[in-house]
Inverse folding.
């Protein structure tokens, strides 16, 4: 059996469903209503990203090359899957989650970086630490930081980074061509939808980590059971995912229910009831400092 176990049919079925919805919206629904197609493409692209996350962690099959091949298509346009995979696995292997020097997914900045920033950019980073700012600006900031980092890596001779971008650019051509020639959706509209899908993903990543002395207390638990929980494939239970990164998305809720007290003790109660609570608390208020607070001298 190619699937890792008999329960992995759920992930495989969801991958097929995601692609079918994407194709239907892009090449079917768009002919009748561009607005309807665009509105539903945004969460579909977010779901595709969530499934990419699932596949890079070894699902749904026993063959990683196959898991990668079925999710490498750049439906979301902006992030090369192979770069996402490498950086995310590095994030998991890292013993210093959140540290801006060591964690490639950290939203904190170092004190030295902060001091070099001009005032307008400092204002942007501070706005980015509100939920509204993260949704609007987070994708741009992520892309700019990745472009700068990867360009330096390529120029220094990192062939793995170069190959990841070559694969991405090669695959993005047929996606853009298909949208241009076979979809009623304007190309610029699809680009906006892809950005919207990236922005929606920012709701999940907004506070899934915090800087704490205890490594175990750095990952959040959001006890949400609504549509965002499904869209993010239960990664709202992020402390559970970090404790057991190889566990499939559909097992996370039951694993959490059986060990709720232990997980909340482990992460020192870094918990929220729902994403609605997060919106109410942080829509226009910074969740914490921009500068990594465990670095001596940080104050902003």
């Amino acid at each position: 059996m190619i699937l890792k176990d008999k329960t992995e049919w759920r992930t495989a079925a969801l991958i097929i469903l995601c692609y079918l919805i994407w194709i239907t919206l892009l090449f079917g629904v768009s002919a009748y209503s561009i607005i309807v197609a665009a509105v539903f493409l945004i969460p579909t692209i977010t779901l595709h990203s969530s499934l990419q996350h699932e596949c890079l962690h070894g699902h749904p099959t026993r063959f990683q090359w196959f898991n990668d091949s079925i999710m490498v298509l750049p439906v979301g346009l902006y992030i090369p899957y192979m770069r996402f995979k490498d950086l995310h696995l590095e994030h998991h292997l890292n013993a210093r989650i959140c540290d801006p020097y060591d964690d490639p997914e950290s939203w904190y900045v170092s004190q030295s970086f902060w001091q070099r920033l001009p005032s307008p950019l400092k204002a942007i980073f501070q706005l980015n630490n509100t939920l509204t700012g993260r949704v609007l600006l987070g994708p741009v900031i992520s892309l700019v930081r990745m472009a700068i980092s990867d360009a330096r890596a390529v120029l220094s001779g990192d062939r793995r980074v170069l190959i990841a971008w070559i694969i991405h650019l090669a695959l993005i051509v047929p996606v853009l061509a298909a949208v241009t020639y076979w979809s009623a959706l304007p190309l610029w509209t699809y680009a906006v939808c892809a950005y919207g899908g990236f922005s929606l993903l920012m709701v999940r990543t907004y506070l899934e980590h915090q800087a704490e002395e205890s490594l175990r207390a750095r990952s959040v638990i959001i006890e949400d059971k609504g549509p965002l929980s499904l869209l993010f494939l239960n990664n709202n239970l992020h402390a559970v995912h970090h404790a057991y990164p190889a566990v499939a998305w559909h097992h996370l809720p039951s694993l959490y229910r059986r060990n709720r007290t232990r997980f909340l003790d482990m992460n020192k109660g870094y918990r929220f009831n729902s994403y609605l609570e997060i919106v109410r608390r942080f829509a226009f208020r910074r969740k914490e400092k921009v500068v990594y607070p465990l670095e001596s001298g940080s104050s902003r």
